[in-house]
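go over this:
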Amino acid sequence: MAYVSVAVGLIALAQLVHVAWHDFWYLKIRNKAVLALLITYLVWAALNGFSTFLSDLAIAALLVLPALLMWLLRLLGAGDVKLYFALGLLLGLSHVGLFVIFLLVVTLLFQAALWIAGRRSEGGAVLQRMRFFRSEKKAPYGVVICIAAFVPVLLRIMGVP
């Protein structure tokens, strides 16, 4: 049973990579990607007897509320809000603190990368995209969110407290 739980967790991590990649190139988090994360969580939770479902739901709500406020202020996209809900479930109470720390660090690193990209005149497609974000004052927050969630989700799936 533990191997199945780990396999489901690895699927969740692959989904995070997909969401980040798609958001980077298209500035969009698709509803079906968030739904897939929700389904993956439900399978993982079922394998673990739904033992943490209520606290997972509370963390999801806790992450969504400020994100919803940011969406209302037009500081965040609707896809990012939905992504926070799915990630709140996957992170749970035990790993949300680590996620918040990683979110701060990854946000600062992403801002530094935008600044560096704005100072470079040559480069490949990724650098060009970063310069686009800087010049248009747009950002793929889903990328930052997914990168910050990767390790905490992995630790939770592996059962590391």
